Amino acid sequence: MVSLTVIIVYAMRLYSYLLFASVLVTWFPDIQKSTIGRLLYRITEPYFGIFRRFIPSVRLGGGYMDFSPVVALIVYDLFVQRGVIYLLGKVLY
């Protein structure tokens, strides 16, 4: 039988892959407008939106660069995933 901890860890890992895929999709406007691109946006934007509110885009040349997804990915990996795994270890074991 699979434990609740394993299910949570796999779900969090899947979400991290979706976050990364969402960042990659932004490089390809045609994919971004597809069904998959819109689905990725709907799944990941609630998390990315938190960071977009606080981290402004940086002007580079004739356009803007949004660094908030990079910060969001780092925070998710270093704090959210590891923090939840640590807390699950403390509570369940």
TrEMBL record:
The chain crosses the membrane at residues 6-27, 67-88. One of its GO terms (cellular component) is membrane. It holds the Pfam family CCB3_YggT. It comes from the Bacteria. The keyword Transmembrane helix applies. InterPro entries: CCB3/YggT. Keywords: Membrane, Transmembrane, Transmembrane helix. PANTHER family: PROTEIN COFACTOR ASSEMBLY OF COMPLEX C SUBUNIT B CCB3, CHLOROPLASTIC-RELATED, YLMG HOMOLOG PROTEIN 2, CHLOROPLASTIC. Belongs to the YggT family. This is YggT family protein. It comes from Tumebacillus permanentifrigoris.
